[in-house]
Amino acid sequence: MRTRGVLVKGRPGVWTRRLLAMITTIVFDVGETLTRDDRHWGRWADWLDIPRHTLSALVGAVVAQGRDNADALRLIRPGIDLRAERAEMERAGLSEFLDDSDLYEDVRPGLAALRDAGYAVHVAGNQTARAGGLLRALDLPADSISTSAEWGVAKPDPDFFERVIRVTGAAPASILYVGDHPANDIVPAKRVGLRTCLIRRGPWGHLWADEPDVTPDWHIDSHHDLLPLLASSGA
What we know:
Layout: E1 3-9, E2 15-21, E3 25-28, H1 38-48, H2 52-64, H3 71-76, H4 82-91, H5 107-116, E4 120-125, H6 129-137, E5 144-147, H7 148-151, H8 158-168, E6 175-179, H9 182-191, E7 195-199, H10 202-207, E8 218-220, H11 226-233
Parallel strand pairs: 3-4, 3-6, 4-5, 6-7, 7-8
Antiparallel strand pairs: 1-2
Helix pairs in contact: 1-2
């Protein structure tokens, strides 16, 4: 494993050199990290026959309360069975869909630049199995694309990040996980020894980025920021 030395202060007046693993592998979350969630929530609003702005506002409200974003749907229809409702949407021809228009503009060039620089690039997020197939069909510059439904375990379960380690084949300290959600991405990834980067994107990334309890290794505003940041930090 490649390492770099950094000086850290120990007891008064004494500095020691600590070895840190060099980052070799970068793993990206999906929703509001690589893809916009506009189509997803718009589809739900249309299905539930409510204005799209109403659902967006409710998503923002539950996010601000630290709740699951699906609680916005439960506020509209208490007791809703989301799995059954998704199946009804499928039967009605409203299947989940993704294309290039759902990607943020910096995704393809940002991921490609990282691969060109020698980093392994992977994608792993809380998504359906269908979303996994749709993402792979987009031919992103990534070594692998995986979803929680395909793995049978979802964030923030630490087993999700243990699976990330197994799939990438990299040492935990050499993996950087990039996501927008502090509770789902940053905190659990750090607990299993991964390095972390919070992207200020989507409601979570903007709302919680500067909270004192949110302590990723780095913050970025765009995927274009990541390669220069890693180069300047020696990571």
